[in-house]
Design a protein that fits this description.
By secondary structure, the protein is an all-beta fold. It is about 0% helix and about 50% strand. The protein folds into 4 domains: about 20-110, Immunoglobulin-like (Sandwich); about 120-205, Immunoglobulin-like; about 215-300, Immunoglobulins (Immunoglobulin-like, Sandwich), CATH 2.60.40.10; about 305-420 and about 435-465, Immunoglobulin-like, CATH 2.60.40.10.
């Protein structure tokens, strides 16, 4: 005979699930709510299982780590707080209806935070420039396995190779450069949190001092103050440098210079330049790796003379007008001009003086034809008694308060060939005469006064002095 319970059960259709089976990913430590909802529960029984273990039947919870959140006549939620990796697995909700239960399954994966370590637990390393570097970053925890990455500036870490073997990501550099100095970070990310987990290593790169001079060529005048700055880049840092002048070591006890520093910039000051102050100044920095040096030349010499002739071809047979310009911080007092026939070795030299007169506005050349800027000088000289159709070479050096400077570049010019209007008589020709003999009458290095009338300085010497 049928009892009343069988009649009631048959009077209700088996509930249909309105929640679905799922695969869920939950972070360790979070709270998870697994749904088991039907369209109409009525008198049917809900049972939760983890794998084969029963967790709850209807309202009775067997495993006290769990609790149930009921939804009236529709089922419930299985709630678990502070999820741990051991809670990972399959959770089944069954509706007890007849011999074959209806069920849904939730497969839960518990995600754990990544943990990484650097080889040898290194937080700081010191390596010399040019040596090789190898850094390993190892995963020691984390599920799912995290992605690893070395965070390095590609411009600073050139030639780096990154390889992964098992749970270790390795960064290798064949030759370390000073630009790699700083921090390198290894990061691990599996989505557990918004930002990756990182480990950082500080890299110190040792290298010898590298020197940068503020100004390598300094043109000065007497009584001026000059400053030379020597910027030093080095690791380990340099705390002092050695200064020398023309190879002789300098200290403040020398009496003519002041020595100071500001961080990595070392400064030598010449309070008042004199003729003995010119020359080469060198700063030398030394650390445990090596040494480096840089030099600045302090000079009072004028800049090289610039020949300003528009043409190097003379329109005359026996003369050529030479013009030049020069810039000098110190007042020019004369020029020394050298002349020779092209292809010969001996030079003839002459001094070209500046003839000046006193005026109410200062000292000026008495042949000025146009104003020049301060520190600029212009001169001209007519070379006479030259040979027709001959190529000559000329060079000019400038003398100022610091003495006679170097001769400038050689300038080549030529005279106009002689135009023959009639045949010369045999008696007038001398087979022993040389074109050179009519131009240069004395040996190389002689003062132009040895040339007699060959070269004559004339009119146009233009000069502008600083006020």
């Amino acid at each position: 005979m049928e009892n009343d319970a069988d009649k009631e059960t048959r009077s209700f259709p088996t509930p249909k699930f309105i929640s679905e089976s799922s695969h869920i990913l939950v972070n360790e430590g979070d709270t998870v709510r697994l749904p088991c909802l039907v369209d109409r529960l009525e008198w049917f029984v809900i049972m939760w299982k983890r794998e084969a273990a029963i967790l709850s039947v209807m309202h009775q919870v067997i495993d006290q780590r769990f609790r149930l959140d009921d939804v009236e006549n529709q089922g419930n939620y299985l709630v678990l707080g502070q999820v741990s990796p051991e809670d990972q697995g399959s959770y089944t909700c069954q509706i007890m209806s007849g011999a074959t239960p209806t069920e849904i399954v939730h497969n839960m994966t518990v995600r754990t935070a990544p943990k990484i370590r650097l080889e040898d637990d290194t937080e700081e390393i010191t390596i010399r420039e040019g040596e090789s570097l190898s850094l390993g970053c190892q995963v020691i925890a984390g599920s799912p396995p995290p992605d690893l990455a070395w965070d390095a500036d590609p411009e600073a870490v050139t030639g780096a190779q990154v390889t992964r073997a098992g749970d270790t990501l390795r960064l290798a550099v064949a030759e370390v450069t000073r630009g790699m100095a700083g921090e390198l970070s290894c990061s691990a990310d599996n989505g557990f949190q918004d930002t990756p987990v990182t480990k950082t290593v500080k890299v110190n790169v040792e290298y010898p001092p590298s020197i940068e001079i503020s100004e390598a060529f300094i043109v000065t005048d007497l009584a001026e103050e000059q400053e030379i700055k020597c910027s030093v880049s080095a690791w380990p840092p340099v705390v002092e440098v050695e200064w020398s002048h023309n190879g002789e070591r300098l200290t403040e006890l020398s009496g003519q210079v002041l020595i100071s520093s500001l961080d990595s910039v070392f400064i030598l000051t010449i309070p008042e330049v004199n003729t003995s102050s010119v020359g080469e100044y060198t700063c030398t920095a030394t650390n445990s790796v090596g040494s480096g040096s840089g030099s600045a030349l302090v000079t009072g010499e004028a800049e090289p003379v610039t020949i300003t002739n528009e043409s190097s071809e003379s329109e005359l047979e026996d003369r050529f007008s030479l013009s030049w310009e020069v810039t000098s911080r110190s007042a020019v007092d004369r020029w020394v001009l050298g002349l020779r026939v092209a292809g010969t070795e001996e030079w003839e030299f002459t001094e070209v003086e500046l003839d000046t007169v006193e005026t109410g506005n200062g000292t000026h050349d008495d042949n000025i034809t146009e104003a020049l800027e301060a520190g600029e000088y212009r001169g001209s000289l007519e070379l006479t008694s030259l040979q027709p159709g001959t190529e000559y070479e000329v060079t000019v050096a400038t003398s100022n308060s610091f003495g006679l400077g170097q001769h400038g570049d050689i300038y080549t010019f030529s005279t106009r060939p002689r135009v023959t209007t009639q045949e010369p008589s045999p008696a007038s020709a001398s087979p022993d005469a040389s074109p050179r003999d009519s131009v240069l009458s004395s040996g190389g290095g002689a003062d132009i006064r040895g040339l007699g009338p060959v070269i004559v300085a004339i009119a146009c010497l233009l000069v502008s002095f600083k006020q």
